[in-house]
Amino acid sequence: MRIVFIGPPGAGKGTQAERIVKTYGIAHLSTGDMLRAARAAQTEIGKKADVYMSAGQLVPDDIIIALIAERLQQPDCRAGYLLDGFPRTIAQAEALDQMLAQQGTPLNCVLELRVPEDELFRRLAGRGRADDDPEVIRQRLVAYRQQTEPLLEYYSRCGLLRSVDGVGSVDEVFSRVAAALDQVGK
Ligand code: AMP
User: Fold this and answer.
1) 68 lines ligand 1 (CB under 6 A)
2) Domain that holds residue 134
3) How many angstroms separate the Cα of 25 from the Cα of each of 12, 15, 80, 115?
4) How many structural domains are present in the chain?
5) Per-residue pLDDT reduced to its tens digit, 38-73
6) Is the pTM here over 0.85, yes or no?
7) In angstroms, what is the span from residue 101 Cα to ligand 1's centroid?
8) C-beta of residue 20 within 8 angstroms of C-beta of residue 80
């Protein structure tokens, strides 16, 4: 199963993503994790990305698209994968469509985790990561609204979008997620 996982920062995507990949036996592809690893290793990509990440802005599309194109070639992706935090712009979504069409492996589902904004702010403020400073949080929410939310319309038009309520305990939310994914099948 090939899934795109969309949701604002603080929606609980990371926690749900871990449960999804375990339950469905698929690879977890988090561009945020990849970038944090690149930043920690001080690679060229990591150094470039750091400037944007520290400001709560999106890293330029060309960097991200190259990163994910390479990752999708790894053998563990053959069993399926969950794209967590990618695509985040229409340009990224179009690039992904093109890559997958070339490989003959289209997406099965786009899962949206919905959480109201005041709740997001509360959760993010309690988290304490370096990019969780209030101004950076605000900027990340703005980036989500302006650049990522248009993807919901994009994927809804091709009938791939499934939206799940992200408010509740981890177990409650996961059972909604699993119900949505089981409908899609494998
Ligand atoms: P995340 O852990 O997914 O919230 O990502 C952390 C940060 O990495 C984001 O705030 C962006 O600066 C950057 N990032 C992660 N994924 C992407 C992406 N698909 N496009 C652009 N920037 C990204």
Assistant:
1) no
2) 2-184
3) 20, 16, 8, 26
4) 1
5) 999 999 999 999 999 999 999 999 999 999 999 999
6) yes
7) 24
8) no
